[in-house]
Amino acid sequence: LKPSGRHRQLKVLEWVLIGGGLLLLAIWAGVTLWGTLASKAEVAQLQRSLAVPDQALWSQARKQAYLESLERDPGAAIAVLTIDRLDIETPVFDSVNELNLNRGVSRIEGTATLAEADNLGIAGHRDSFFRPLKDVEIGERIKLTSPLGVTEYEVMETLIVDPEDVWVLDPADQAMLTLVTCYPFYFVGSAPERFIVRAVAVSET
């Protein structure tokens, strides 16, 4: 029997939907792969740059000029954030935007810089680089590596707050790190809360 016109239309629609689904899957896979490769490239590039020149004979003005030069390229990573047990190793960028959050995590504007002993806020997406934070534990060690040196932090608490609770980013009287991501981790759509990890500096080299 010859298929009816309606049957042919349904078959065409079926193939269109299958093709559209495969196309969306390919786009998602491409974006995910790009983010992963870009992240690894930034980490490798920053690690290569960590060979700081001998400054023994430099004046204070020369040292200051060198430090300022490290921040002139807004597109480059400024640090690498590592949590060994959670298998996190991601570049840290100096501006929160979608491009940077797709390549790694970002310092939150208005919080401490790498050179300040204050509250340094870092944001990341819950469905990519900061997804493993769901398993973070009190006492966990977080390492921040930059051209200025290596600072190690110890997790002192985790919090679940509303987006309006920006007090978690308030200045502090000690060097500390505040990691921010959306919560719940597996929420479909725009997550209504924020997951916060607060850690204090315990060593610096």
Give a nutshell description of this structure.
The protein has 3 helices and 8 strands.
What does the secondary structure layout of this molecule look like, with pairings?
Elements: H1 5-49, H2 60-69, E1 79-83, E2 88-93, H3 98-103, E3 105-107, E4 119-123, E5 141-146, E6 149-161, E7 176-183, E8 193-204
Could you please describe the fold and organization of this structure?
- This protein is of the alpha+beta class.
- 30% of the residues lie in helices and 28% in strands.
- It starts with a helix and ends with a strand.
- The relative contact order is 0.12.
- Mean pLDDT is 81; it is low at 48-53.
Helicity level: 25-40%
Number of helices: 3
Rg over CA atoms, rounded to whole Å, is 22 Å
| N-to-C series of helices and strands | HHEEHEEEEEE
Strand content: 25-35%
Distance N terminus to C terminus?
80 Å
Provide the spatial order of strands within the biggest beta sheet. Answer: 1-2-3-4-7-8-6-5
Mean pLDDT: 81
- Strand tally is 8
Largest sheet: 8 strands, mixed, barrel
Specify the structural class: alpha+beta
Q: Poorly predicted ranges (pLDDT <50, ≥5 residues)?
A: 48-53
Q: Can you tell me the overall shape?
A: elongated
